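[audit] Reproducing an earlier prediction to check determinism. Same input, same settings, fresh worker. If the tokens differ from the archived copy the diff job will pick it up downstream; this log only records the rerun itself.
[audit] input (164 residues):
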Amino acid sequence: MSTTQKCMNCARDVDLVFRRCPHCNHKMGDKTINDFTDEELLQQTEMWLSQMGKVHKSYVDHKSTSKKNVDFNELATETLKRHIKAHLSLLSFRGASNPELKAAYFKYRNQYRRFYNRRTTFKLLTFVFFGLIVFILFYCSIRKEHNLKVEESRSQDIKQESTN
């Protein structure tokens, strides 16, 4: 069985994970990823996982009909995640009765988690770093204001003492 189907509107090969053609937004046929054999499911899951980190974030949604020549790499990150999760979910379901698929599910799930957790950790560290910089700058400005007030009060005390 093929892991793609032809779009009836634009005649392009489209992965079965899509319910609408990413090129022209036409509704796809009745085939779904549930129709994959175990081997095809493993191949497709690996193929989708290989696309992590290669997608452009600028292309947010594939429903726009103004983009007729949408490349595979133009899928949004969230769309890619959704398709990987669909494949992993099916692998998990089929893995309940097949130890080989269960092992593959854990392998691919861990690969997925490592990739996206690393990105999340980087974002968190960046956020904390910039938050710390803002806090330091704010603290320095408050400290500077306090020092100015202290100096001003000292100079006033010195003037008062000199006049007395």
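[audit] rerun output stored. Observation attached for the diff report: The chain has one domain: 4-139.
[audit] end
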